[in-house]
Design brief:
Blueprint (H helix, E strand, L loop, with lengths): L1 E5 L4 H10 L5 E5 L8 H11 L3 E4 L6 H6 L1 H22 L4 E7 L24 H20 L2 E7 L2 E2 L8 H13 L6 E3 L5 E2 L2 E2 H14 L5 E4 L5 E2 H11 L7 E3 L11 E2 L4 H7 L7 H15 L1
Parallel strand pairs: 1-2, 1-3, 3-4, 4-5, 5-10, 6-9, 7-12, 8-13
Antiparallel strand pairs: 8-11
Helix pairs in contact: 1-7, 2-4, 4-5, 6-8, 6-10, 8-10
């Protein structure tokens, strides 16, 4: 069977490709989301390849940059999805499409609303989150209007080896690795009070495969660990793994977001009931593998 991954060279895309190749599938990739903004390119790819599955991961995914250039994130995160849906409709394909939505869509969550279920109100706090909600709504419309097989996964924070250095777990791990070999003098941090629910990327890609085979098209499904850690707790775990003790910590105002979501702590019982999925890799293993990844690079 043919599988197409958009964003195949990204952090999650690489892990997903490695996982799917263990399933004896013919895996193909498209990397740049800018290519997917052109309908003719998407049409040609899907017409030629006729994929049985599409995992749509390509996106402008770094939340802070969406404040600086909202037009860019909205166009790159909405138009490619529409082009994929429209092309599948045009050729009458039964392709199963997974769209990677985000816990950021829940936005400002009240203390009495955690853990967050799919029924929570969406109170987006960034252009990135808004772009993902728009993609959700479009997916649901194509499912209802044209019976397309589109599966919506709302992934909470995920990390692991290969995570981009701009993301919080990875920037901490990279800086610690640099300090250990004398390339940095101190560790620079932003908001340490926010709480996040972290899942290992290897558990996340396994969940994506289950989603397209066991979930209901058009229904949103949270994918998360069901545990929340403050960013301070994550930092403390990584510091405890370091060979360098008494690392100096400095707050960097440039690492603070214009508006930050205080807590993203999820309930994925709906997804577990549908698929039988359970996370297998704990947060300490994830962070150790991430730190070792940066140690090897540095």
């Amino acid at each position: 069977m043919n599988v197409l991954i958009t964003g195949s060279n990204g952090f999650v895309g690489k892990h997903l490709e490695a996982f799917l190749k263990t399933k004896d599938l013919n895996v193909m990739g498209v990397d740049l989301p800018t290519d997917l903004k052109i309908l003719e390119i998407v049409d040609d790819i899907i017409y030629q390849k006729k994929p049985d599955y599409i995992f749509h991961l390509a996106a402008k995914a770094y939340v802070p940059s969406s404040f600086d250039d909202p037009q860019d994130v909205l166009v790159n995160n909405i138009i490619p999805a529409v082009n994929i849906f429209q092309t599948i409709k045009k050729y009458g394909l039964s392709t199963k499409v997974q769209v990677a939505s985000s816990s950021e869509q829940y936005g400002k969550v009240n203390p009495n609303e955690v853990p967050i279920t799919e029924a929570n109100e969406l109170r987006e706090m960034s252009p990135y989150a808004i772009s993902k909600t728009a993609m959700d709504k479009l997916a649901q419309w194509y499912v209802n209007a044209y019976k397309l097989n589109i599966f919506i996964t709302r992934g909470f924070n995920h990390s692991g080896p290969g995570r981009g250095e701009q993301y919080v777990t990875s920037t901490f791990a990279k800086q610690i690795a640099e300090i250990e070999v004398g390339k940095r003098e101190y560790l620079s941090v932003g908001n340490l009070e926010a709480k996040r629910d972290f899942t290992d990327v290897r558990d996340m890609v396994r969940a994506y495969w289950l989603a397209v085979n066991k979930c209901i098209p058009g229904e949103p499904y949270n994918i998360c660990s069901g545990k929340a850690y403050s960013i301070q707790e994550i930092l403390n775990k990584l510091l405890a793994m370091s060979t360098q003790k008494n690392i100096e910590i400095r707050t960097d105002p440039s690492r603070m977001r214009v508006s930050d979501v205080p807590i993203l702590y999820g309930d994925c019982s709906k997804f577990k009931q549908a698929t039988g999925w359970e996370p297998e890799i704990d947060i300490d293993t994830t962070l150790k593998d991430l730190l070792d990844y940066w140690r090897k690079l540095i």
